[in-house]
Design brief:
The complex is a heterodimer of chains A (223) and B (480). By secondary structure, chain A is α/β, with parallel strands linked by helices. Helix content of chain A is 41%, strand content 22%. The chains are: A alpha/beta (223), B alpha+beta (480).
């Protein structure tokens, strides 16, 4: 998996590169916005880490250019600026996550892991269960045409459930699939994710099979 | 030397130096004193003038009368055909006298006639008067002198040398009036008038001084009030309409205020830039420390640095915001619900990888916040972030148009964490509570939140949540 790091501070860039390399990623790095934008536009990346305060071209402009160009790899913004309004602005421009400096490398790696696009997702596949639609190429989820905002883990849970629509998926199975590379997770978190997803896509789409797990259905069909 | 108690002059000088009122009063006092001095001099002058004015015409006319009445007697000597009308020339020692003397060939005076009022005394003419009059020729006119009178008092006399037709020789006519009585009466009158006048003047000067102090120094009091307003932050600059004399001072003060503000602004920007600039190296240090051995001291120091930077930046932001809102009354309108939704999604992402948090929004409808979007986001984010940090898995954000107090709406953030004890809640609700000061980088970040809430005259209330954790109620002004 290829990751692009755009960061002007040499030390931090090298730390990021080495940490990511250690974690098994192939890392390209750029020291300024111009180079970063060029790399992002020309190379296929599974994720980009983008500093906002960059020389030559600033991070938000780079992000805007990528999105305009149709580059929809997950982008993780890295910035010293920690105003919430700035974070919201970054997300509005199409960033997938936001990490404020200074950060813990472990946390950053966890976020990278959560956001990085899986190899399989490169095949432009669209999953549909009733009017619930998931486009794995763009990462977009819609209900009856209306877009739903999901975090990386929420997306993963839904993606897995949709891949196995109509089938019972146990909690253990979900935990293993979702947190394959992470440390031991509390199975309770799956319950929380299911709760969130129910709220976002509609409670009647995800049925709890007592003692067994969850099942994603098309409520229109069930009636 | 310095131990000595200050002399009266030094103390007076000190008073003058320290009080404009004392200065003005001193000037007024000096004016009054000068006025009295001038009055006294005028008074002395007045006596002389009074003599000429009151007495000289009278004795002149009496002398004319005598000369007119003088004629040859039986022995070719001089006799008076009639005495002056004024009976006082007849009453003994009445203070009005006349005397007629023959000027002999040898230059001596031979008294011929004296007024009955003189009884048997004579007006003795001092040597200088005699010399002057002996040198005079007949018809020379009147000569006036002040001499000692027969009764010991001052005597104003007129002396004339005349030749009387049909009478041999030249005669010296002297008419005198004792001045003491007349001058005393007039002097007392004038002294009284003068005293009344000076008192009146002094009172006037005192009154004018008082008015000067009150009215003249009035703008200074106004200036003081305005400066106090600037210091309190109620006003940006001194905007009053000041007299031309104070205008330069206010202009200088305004320049100083502007300069100070600029310096503070620059310092704040420096701090902000510094804090931002420190973040990247801190990130590097943090990663370096995490990579190597577990050096707890190093890690703790880095955490502290991080906390300080964070705190400084927030402070600078709040201060900058306070400045901006103090200066302008621009009404901002910020829709709340959309911003809360964005914020909640941000939080979901923030905690996505570390902790599954179910953050739900319950809103009956949208409201509009009368304030800046950035502030709304900061305040709400602070509360939601805390709720996510301390909550177990669930956070509820409610948006309520508040019915209790008009013009306010409410953002309620509840979590299912351990919450705060009643004591801690009470402490957190105190104005300017510093629950978070003890541990940098830890805690609720409440003091900064409080400052922003106060800026909008809002309210922050903590209660126990139904979910079990903390319930924070943020009341903010809504637009009408």
């Amino acid at each position: 998996m290829r990751v692009l790091v755009v960061e002007d501070d040499k030390n931090l860039r090298e730390q990021l590169a080495s940490a990511l390399t250690d974690a098994g990623y192939t890392v390209d790095s750029a020291a300024d916005g111009e180079e970063g934008q060029f790399l992002g536009e020309t190379e296929p990346y599974d994720l980009a880490i983008l500093d906002l305060g960059l020389p030559k071209v600033d991070g938000l402009t780079v992000l805007k250019a990528w999105r305009k160009d149709g580059k929809n790899m997950p982008v993780l913004i890295l910035s010293a600026r920690d105003r919430w309004s700035e974070k919201v602005e970054g997300l509005d421009l199409g960033a997938n996550d936001y990490v404020t400096k200074p950060f813990h490398m472990a946390e950053l790696l966890a976020r990278v892991r959560a956001n990085v696009r899986r190899q399989t997702d490169h095949q432009s596949s669209v999953l549909e269960v009733g009017d619930l639609r998931l486009n794995s190429a763009t990462g977009q989820v819609t209900v009856n045409g209306a877009p739903i905002k999901l975090t990386a883990y929420q997306y993963k849970v839904l993606d897995y459930l949709m891949h196995h629509a109509g089938r019972i998926v146990s909690r253990t199975e979900l935990t293993e699939k979702i947190y394959s590379q992470d440390h031991e997770r509390d199975s309770n978190t799956i319950e929380v994710f299911i709760g969130i997803l129910r709220r976002k896509v509609g409670a009647n789409r995800i049925i709890t099979e007592k003692g067994l797990g969850y099942r994603l259905i098309d409520p229109a069909e069930a009636q | 030397m310095s131990d000595e108690p200050p002399g009266i002059i030094q103390r007076f000088r000190a008073t003058i130096r320290h009080s404009i009122a004392a200065r003005l009063l001193t000037i007024a006092g000096i004016s009054v004193f000068g006025l009295m001095l001038m009055g006294w001099i005028a008074h002395a002058q007045f006596n002389g003038r009074l003599l000429r004015l009151l007495i000289d015409p009278e004795i002149e006319s009496v002398a004319d009368d005598l000369i007119g009445n003088a004629g040859p007697g039986l022995n070719d000597d001089l006799i008076l055909r009639d005495l002056p009308y004024d009976p006082r020339y007849l009453q003994p020692l009445s203070g009005r006298y006349f005397q007629i003397a023959l000027i002999r060939e040898d230059g001596r005076l031979e008294t011929q006639t004296i007024s009955p009022s003189l009884v048997d005394a004579e007006i003795s003419l001092p040597g200088n008067v005699q010399r002057e009059m002996l040198a005079a020729r007949a018809g020379d006119g009147a000569h006036y002198f002040s001499i000692d009178g027969p009764d010991g008092g001052d005597l104003r006399i007129v002396a004339r040398v005349e030749s009387i037709p049909d009478v041999q020789g030249r005669y010296l006519f002297v008419v005198g009036v004792a001045t003491r009585e007349i001058l005393e009466t007039a002097g007392t009158l004038v002294a009284w008038a003068f005293a009344v006048f000076v008192t009146f003047c002094a009172l006037m000067v005192a009154g004018v001084s008082a008015l000067q102090i009150r009215i003249g120094l009035g703008p200074l009091h106004e200036l003081q009030r305005d400066i106090a307003a600037v210091r309190r932050g109620d006003a940006d600059r001194l905007e009053g309409d000041y007299p031309a004399e104070i205008q330069p001072v206010t202009e200088e003060l305004n320049a100083l205020v502007d300069h100070n503000r600029e310096v503070v602004e620059r310092a704040r920007r420096h701090v902000g830039n510094l804090a931002h600039a420190l973040k990247t190296p801190i990130a590097v240090l943090k990663n370096a420390a995490a990579g190597g051995g577990e050096d707890a001291v190093l890690k703790q120091s880095i955490d502290e640095m991080e906390g300080f930077v964070e705190r400084q930046l927030r402070r600078a932001r709040v201060a900058a915001r306070a400045d901006a809102s103090a200066g302008s009354t621009i009404a901002y309108r910020t829709p709340v619900l959309q911003n809360l939704e964005d914020l909640v999604f941000m939080m979901e992402q923030k905690y996505d990888a570390t902790k599954a948090m179910d953050i739900s929004i319950e809103a009956e409808g949208d409201v509009t916040f009368r304030g800046e979007r950035e502030d709304l986001l900061e305040m709400a984010a602070n509360l939601i972030d805390n709720a996510c940090k301390y909550g177990t898995s669930q956070v509820i954000v409610r948006l309520l148009p508040s019915f209790e107090s008009k013009g306010l709406f409410e953002i309620v953030v509840e979590d299912d964490g351990p919450g705060l004890s009643d004591e801690e809640i009470a402490k957190a609700m105190q104005r300017g509570a510093r629950l978070d000061e003890a541990a940098p980088g830890q805690g609720l970040g409440l003091s900064i939140l409080q400052e922003t809430v106060e800026l909008y005259a809002g309210q922050l209330i903590f209660e126990r949540a139904q979910l079990g954790g903390l319930k924070a109620r943020l009341l903010l002004p809504a637009t009408d």
